[in-house]
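Sharing a chain and its predicted structure for anyone who wants a worked example. Both blocks are below, sequence first, tokens second.
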Amino acid sequence: MTDHLKSPNQDQGGGGFAGTLRNIQLTDIIQMCCLAGTSICVRVRQDQNQGNIYIQDGDIVHAQCGAISGTKAFLTILGWPSGQFETLDASASSPRTIKEPYQFLLMEAARMADEQAQTRREAPAAPEAEASRKLRVLIVDDSAIMSKILNSMLSADPGIEVIGSAKNGEEALSKMKELSPDLITMDVNMPVMDGSTALKHIMIESPCPVLIMSNLGPSSYATILSFLNLGAVDFMSKPVKNRNIVQQQQRMVDRVQLAVTANIKRFQRVRPPKLTADDYIKVNEKKPCEKLMIAISGVGGHLEMVNLITSLPSKPSACLLSLQSIPPPFAPTLSEYLNVRSRFDVMPFQAGARLCAGRCYIGTSERAIDIDLDEAVWVFKDADPTPHADGSTNFDRLLGAVSELYLDRVVIVLLSGCEIGTMQGLEKVKENGGQIVAPQLEKCILPTTITPVVEKGLVTEIFSPKEIGQMLTRYCS
């Protein structure tokens, strides 16, 4: 759509601004008007077609396109591939033909646009693919409003079916036995039976992938960590009103589709070693490490990463960078938890972090990281996150940089749910003599993202999780 936003006073010679906004989509304008509680009419033209969308006090109340009105007209207008739009004063007497919340309408429009784009890109699907079963999700949250929001966000994806909801842990266990969901989204704090107790019962009675939905903040991180230790495969922030709802919906769908592939029957509780004060490594900040290990984990990989970090050897020559799909503010809580359970000195990643033997940094896989020299010691630094023309990711570029410096003294450990980029970085590591190791796929909670690397022949060693200590001693000492 051409992005003309016209002031209502423009034609009347009144005050206000008039101009053109660039790179603004029609959905952006509608979402901004709804979030602001505005009353306005958005007129859209495409060739000989014209449609009007009426917003009253932040709600989409009516749409008209030729002889079509209501929800069907709204989706028809947003389905036009191009055109022009402008904003006008809304009539106070506009009929109410639309009852659905604006979030649902925007997500439904986005879903239909994705389907149309997919249809243009691909040949007709085989009958078997068309008949494939949807992912069945059970929502557990004591807030009826939040349950409704999560339902609309997930149901907007054609591959997901919300089969029920529960308002507490006790009801969730009953619904789980009745409905047999593929995945459960679980609130943390609920009456009658909280999420923690419900998760323990789920893991014992009928293991099922559980995705924790919580309001992320410093006060919730310790609780989220306990859920991950109990077997939850991932956690996400609950939808936030003032953020792009379409982006939040897509991220949630992506995480659900990955989390549902986790094999929870392979869950094993981690038992960290009992350490004394003499077991903790005293790091010499001026002594550079001889080797660099980078461990990558994601959805389903929390306990595998905990097992790795708590199994690190006592006489290391390596520095470890742990990259995980976690929000950066969660890193201090996780670092504090691991620091008392690991021989290595564990701390959150930060720019200027020195690559010293016996040091472990907890970072996020989304952060753009590079490497530089400072007083004869290599340090990590923030890198330019701008996408490259060759499609390489931040992760690819980091591996390319460290493989050039450390050559055969680089070890990459792939764990469940790891984000592997385009594999350009992994290929560079192997070309320069570095090692790429992974646990036995049949013992991973979520091996989906590791499998392509194994199939491409880039993995140099497959190890048994029971022998992780011996593997780390070989590569780190």
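Comments welcome. The chain has 15 helices and 21 strands.
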